[in-house]
Structures
1.
Amino acid sequence: MRTVIKLALSITAAALAACTRTAPRAGAEAGISPAPTLEEAVVSTDAGTLGIGAAAGERDSEAARAKRAALVRSIAARGYLRSERVIDAMNRVPRHLFVPDAPLSEAYGDYPLGIGSGQTISQPTVVGEMTEALELRGPERVLEIGTGSGYQAAILSVLAREVYTIEIVRELGERAEKRLRDLGYANVQVRVGDGYAGWPEQAPFDRIILTAAPPQVPQALLDQLADGGVLVAPVGEENTTQELLRIRKKGGKLTRESLSDVRFVPMVPGHR
Ligand code: SAH
């Protein structure tokens, strides 16, 4: 199963080798606690009945749905998707509408793709793994750092109550905001700004996800994590293998868990 990932990556241009999973470490998966079962996932938000992403559904196609289902099945078969809710979200959100210049075969390949401004939409396996790690049940308010194409935000949008996402590259942020609005992901708010500062006006957040890698988890984000909250982030220097960390806050105390080795674009410092 591991070879499949490497094969998929080897056909990707080196410049796009970001937001990917690197070769798994021994025992990397062992630290991941089980995602909620369908029974546990009693949700106050039902994306279907709320019409979240309804316009995306209308713009979807049979061909895209089939390719997406095959991709999702292969990610699940490799053990990165375990909860019905996340599988459903990945099946529901049309990734190809977030990479409009890519042919369907690329939009549903398991590798990152360029989205302009030197940035990438993450490898689907990594999106699945990180989304599972967040343990979303439905009522959460989520902060994402690194909006990029808006794809991860759309996935979060169908799994949580409210999504706040920050992008430092204005052009990407504005494009993603328009796309998310047009596709009907109405519970997502996009801000163009520096993710290192978080979004204090909307804090605290039940979940925080970073899709760009800082050298260390920014203190402002740890401060903006609610008690009982979970933060998932790739952490490490640029051009090295980074650690995918999950941090839990309980009674004001932080515990950290290393989930796997990944490779992300760097979280760049903003102008302050
Ligand atoms: N989640 C995205 C992919 C993210 S790629 C998707 O689903 O498409 C990482 C993104 O983080 C890039 O768009 C990059 O511009 C952004 N980024 C990098 N440093 C940042 C910072 N300090 N604050 C906010 N966004 C940042």
2.
Amino acid sequence: MKRIAIITSGGDAPGMNAAIRAIVLSCHEQHIECLGFYHGYNGLINDEFIFLTPELVSPIIQRGGTILKSARCKEMHQDEGVKQVANTLTKHQIDALIVIGGDGSFRGMMALQSDWSGNLIGVPATIDNDIACTDKTIGFASAVNTATQAIDNIRDTANAFERVFIVEVMGRRSGHIAFNVGLAAGAEAILSFENCNLNSLEQAKSHLITQIQSQLLEQHTGFVIVLAENLWPKGPHGLQQTLKDTAGIESAVCVLGYIQRGGSPCPEDRILATELGIEAVSAAKNSTGMMVGKVNGQISRHCIIRATEQNKPVDQALHSAYHHMSKLNN
Ligand code: F6P
């Protein structure tokens, strides 16, 4: 193998730079040239790239975001876009493409398989942690740290005012962030896809109201609700209105939003990114259609189809801990 290409694609995640660094340094040691294409698949369509050298990547392990920039790419949903990507890879005599991103980015990889014969390897990086075949994705631990710290601050003002706070966290359609952050921050309630669905919203609402009323009355503290994005109709403001209309409960809304995606990666993410980056280079030499992951402490390779098509549920242990703590709170 002489040349590999790297892209970072989809929602950026802390630790993407650490993965780029590990890939480039590993390649250098093995005399493999590395081309970094900008803006995810768009850079491959527009032929926008840089030669990645050890000098360039050595100092980036602690940096959030991605030096290669990231983007979502609509063109990858169409044959024409996929063909353009394949042409650029062929033109530059690339032997393997390493895609650092989430499931949308891996679907792009799968589409490319029929038009390009080089090796395709995925490195899971998304704050959402919604990819199977790896216990954690790169960026998840940092996002949980950031959101937990933010809620610790909110907690102070919530307690001072004995106020209800609805804090919306990211996660797209999964509750990994909501459950981990909710437990770490000692949230009084966690509302997420795993414990509420459209049919049980009514029930969740009544339970929440009873919980808030008894706690505010008896304990004179704040009440923090961690709400998964995309769950409640009309989002956190919808829930705020519901609490007011149904039970006269006033609340404040705080959407943590993109602060969860930014910032310096925590040590856990830097280490995971380094391990997966090293493994991606060795996988790229002799396999294709694979994702590298870490399962039960073991670095492993998995078919990309399994990684994208399987659902990764929130750990049962987290559900149990939350239920246990909910009972103790009331
Ligand atoms: O996938 C990461 C993520 O931050 C999700 O948590 C969120 O729903 C989405 O990306 C936001 O996407 P965009 O950057 O396109 O607004």
